[in-house]
Design goal:
The chain has three helices and no strands. It is 62% helix and 0% strand.
Length: 42
C-alpha cells in the first residue's frame, strides 16, 4: 500500500491507526451500527 501511495510504510501505518481510532470513537458504531448511519438496513 505504501508503495502504491508513494509514502513510507511508517506514514501509512500511522495514518491508518489514526483513522481506525476515529472510527472506534464514532457514535454510530456504538448506538446501532451502520443501520443508524444509513437510515435503514445495510
Amino acid at each position: 500500500m505504501a508503495k502504491v501511495l508513494g509514502r513510507s510504510v511508517g506514514t501509512v501505518k500511522s495514518q491508518a491507526s489514526r483513522g481506525l481510532a476515529k472510527l472506534r470513537l464514532h457514535p454510530a458504531l456504538h448506538s446501532g451500527g451502520i443501520e443508524s448511519m444509513t437510515g435503514g438496513s445495510a
